Amino acid sequence: MMDLFGIPNCNTVKKARDWLTDHGLEYTFHNFKKEAPTEALLSTWLEQESWETLVNRAGMTWRKLTDEEKAAVNDNASAIQLMIAKSSVIKRPILIKDGKILNVGFKEAAYEALFDA
Question: Whole-model pTM above 0.90?
Fold first, then answer.
C-alpha cells in the first residue's frame, strides 16, 4: 500500500490521485490540512530528499513569506520548522511506499515510468 501526502484542493494532487485511481493503484491519502506532518516524518523525508526539493519555492505560500523568513530557511532544521508551521509550503504530492519516497510532485511521465504503465 502506498501513501500520498498533499492537500485535496491542489490541482497537482488531484491529478496524481486521479492517475493512481485510473491505474487501479491503491493508496491512503494524507491531508496536510487535517493531519499536519510531524517533525519525525519530515526528518525521515529529509534523509531521502533535500529540503530544496521538499520546500516548494515556486508556490504562493513561499512567495508570501517575507525576505527575512525566506532567508532563514537554509538547512534541514529551519526547513522542518517552516514545513510544520506552514504545511502548504511542502511540494506536493509526495508519494511514499514502505517509508521510501517514490516521487515528489506529479508528472504523468514520471508516474508511468515508476509503475511501468
Answer: yes
Cell readout for 33 is: 490540512
Catalytic residue numbers? 10
Q: For residues 43 and 10, give the distance between their C-alpha atoms in angstroms, rounded to a whole number.
A: 24
- d(CA 67, CA 48) in angstroms, rounded, equals 27
Encode pLDDT of 19-54 as tens digits.
Answer: 999 999 999 999 999 998 999 999 999 999 999 999
Is the bond preceding 93 in cis, omega lying within 30 degrees of 0? yes
Dihedrals phi, psi of 42, to nearest 5 degrees = -65, -40
Query: What are the respective helix, strand and coil percentages of the chain, to the nearest 5?
Result: 45, 20, 35
Partnered with residue 90 across adjacent β-strands are 55
